[in-house]
Amino acid sequence: MTVRVLTVNTHKGFNALNRRFILHELREAVRHVSADVVFLQEVLGTHEVHSAKVQNWPEAPHYEFLADEMWSDFAYGRNAVYPEGHHGNAVLSKFPILRHENCDVSVEGPEKRGLLHCVLDAPAVGQELHVVCVHLGLREAHRREQLRLLCQRIDRFVPPEAPLVIAGDFNDWRLQAHAQLHGCAGLREVFVEAQGQAARTFPARWPLLRLDRIYVRNAKLARPIPLPPHPWRHLSDHAPLAAEIMV
Q1: Peptide bond into 224 cis (omega under 30)
Q2: Burial environment of residue 175 by CB neighbours within 10 A (0 to 12, 13 to 18, 19 or more)
Q3: In CATH, what class is 2-246?
Q4: pTM score, two decimals?
Q5: Domain residue extents for the chain
């Protein structure tokens, strides 16, 4: 069975400079990829100020608006909460989501981070498919601890033989996550395996830093899906990543 996945930091529905609300354009771009599973970071659950002032603000939470009629199941993990509302990670899935849990991996200070772990019912796989949507911190010490917590969760809750996909915004500009995740959980990064290095994703207009990743375990084959710069470079501060994974 081949599973197509997409990961994108939605930047709360605004373009890179926060000058234009582009959620409707983002929805069309996401739909065009036709992914089976979509990993979203910085997706808004609610925002009272924006909803009152921004034209075409959807009535539904952003993750539900993006899911529309194409992804029957979705899960949301609320991470950052503030007076106006909240945002976090989300997973959209064409497969039934059997269960999900948002794991708080915030370390210290104002940054609130989470791991959204979903278990999907994919009958053709022959067993449950585990996916984790990740958004890690800006400080390297925080990321090391968050990766340790991710490995701990995998060890406790993901069977060794189960197919596993982990994707999202790792903020790992120093490229330290590869060795840590391979050593503790046997994870391989799709773009590193196929191209020798992680993909450049930030900033989206002129990508320099390799911040976003797709890691897999127990995959027979995984290959990157090239995505065109247009329209993605106008839809977020991060470029998206997509891959086909045979499990």
Answers
A1: no
A2: middle
A3: alpha beta
A4: 0.96
A5: 2-246
Residue 183 CA to residue 92 CA, distance in Å, equals: 29
Please report the pLDDT score of residue 109 as a whole number: 84
The chain-wide mean pLDDT, for the chain, equals: 95
